[in-house]
Amino acid sequence: MTHDIFAELRAAVLAALGRILPDLPEAVAARVEVTPAREEAHGDAATNAAMVAAKAARRNPRELAALLAAALPGGMIAHAEPAGPGFVNLRLHEAALRAEVKHVLEVGTGYGDCDIGGGLPTNVEYVSANPTGPMHVGHCRGAVVGDALANLLAKAGFAVTKEYYVNDAGAQVDALAWAAYWRYLEALGTTLSEDEFAARVPGGLQYRGEYLTAVGGTLKDRFGDTLAGPGLTVAPAERWFAAVRMFAVSRMLDAIRDDLAALGVRFDTFASERSLVESGAVDATIGRLEADGLIYQGVLEPPRGRTPEDWEPRAQTLFRATRFGDDVDRPLRKSDGSNTYFANDIAYHADKLRRGAALMIDVWGADHGGYVPRMQAAVAALGGRLEVVLCQIVHVLQDGQPVRMSKRAGTFITLRDLLDEVGRDAVRFTMLTRKADAQMEFDIALAVAQTRDNPAFYVQYAHARCRSVLRAAVEMLGAGAVAEGALAAVALDTLADPAELALMRRLASWPRTVAAAAVAREPHRIAFFLYDLAADFHMLWNRGKDDAALRFLVADRPAETLARLALVAATAIVIRSGLAVMGVDPVEEMR
RNA sequence: GCGCCCUUAGCUCAGUUGGAUAGAGCAACAGCCUUCUAAGCUGUUGGCCGCUGGUUCGAGUCCAGCAGGGCGCGCCA
After folding, report:
1. Which range marks the domain in which residue A578 is found?
2. A160 and A141 share one domain
3. ipTM (interface predicted TM)
4. What is the DSSP pairing of strand A295-299 with strand A315-319?
5. Which one of A145, A356, A360, A490 has the fewest beta carbons within 10 angstroms of its own beta carbon?
6. Is the full-model pTM beyond 0.90?
7. Do A150 and A271 fall within a single domain?
């Protein structure tokens, strides 16, 4: 169900324009917009129609604007006037804004839903951290952005699946197996030193963090010393490797699932890289590309301008990514014959496509930016559609000082640390107060501050104030009168104060905000909208400090009180609706 | 060296996809409030939108070049 007064106004403008210019080209009509007025003096909304159509009409934009302004009033539009270089400013009947309040109360948090997605099956993949340890703050932004984006798209009518790609094949989880095996020998009381052990690990011992000691202990409990070699040394890999790897990966996945739950992220599906590989899907996908003539044996040029020290020309299995817009063709097999990560990733995206994803959106860290063109090329070759949202690095600050994050020094912050410190809702909100592709500073002190410059607090506080008023109203008028259904029926004619009208205008722009944010794949816009909405509400609240007659609850004026309660209830609904997109729980009161 | 992203008030950031006189918060300054609608309110100051050119009725927004910051750059995921 779509309801957006700006869309309705646009339809009215197009109709009026069509009466003036009957043969208006479609392409011109498509550029006509109706946007909220930036300034009070400009009315409630403005359209660029006259400027856009001027050329096709061979008329001066101002002249056309005057004709349009004369033709427009009617319906919601009380008044229209030409302005500036050819805008037409629209003033709505106040009743139209009040009707919007009533509508919010009738449909609840479904207000703002729309159908621009048209039910398109859409797979949003995010987090996808390697299952080699607990989540750290580096994963957090992608998790929040991906989750909010998925919620946003669902609200906008896309049929969304939230997916996590488990990289449980490849070198990283092999390294995890070795690290877990070390903790296992340690639990058994091996006499090997860590360095002696590390010397026997292909590629060196990684993942030395404490978090694997428990895994080592559990392996000992489960297997005794049967996985160890004589004298508690390293046994041949075929005796232990696969079992330890599988166990460690599953433990790490459990930890990640716990972290995700603590962050309030729940996936619909977890896709396993290993099971794709083992099912033969990777070879099948490569075979399919090969049949399409997109695979060949070839030698790549060295990267332009910077030849690595050990560069030597080598024949490789290459995918013709250049046919689909990439700069160079990309390798699918390593020199030892195994597949590259890219090859597996192609098969993974083919699998998503096979499962029905008409649109795939991957949320990645910015350090994978260079990988985007080849993945899009591969998906294009498979006949699919892939978009990638990149998230820039987050720098965590404590009181303005950077918190150093170094795995080696053991001072890296886990996601859990951050959640314990700041709280889930504040973390999620704060992560959405920047555009995803802009670098972000996350100030822990600010995120927990109870002041206006903390948007998370400011918005929650607005909601709590709404609820507080409604609780007080129940005392005064009884629960029946204050129910949303009852408030939807009250007369709203007394809502006419400039601050009340401003708040109503803001509420009415929620649907178009949702639609625009969804189209742009920019969930942070929801956070900014809520901040502005909260500001409008707090302003209205503060009016009551100066003038008791402007308070929400005025005992001897029941009609005005009920109308204001309707506005307050509608405000709370829209805040809740926005917070739901962000995955933040609204609070009933501040403590 | 090449590619991608970024550069907006002293600071942190928006900017409705090319529209009107570029906006918030913080900080600064000036007032107000001493309250229970707690965790302030109102106002003022502050701008070469990194720089230079281009596209057009119109550019913070699009294009080219330059400068600075970040990320990446054949068998790591």
Report:
1. 453-582
2. yes
3. 0.94
4. antiparallel
5. A356
6. yes
7. yes
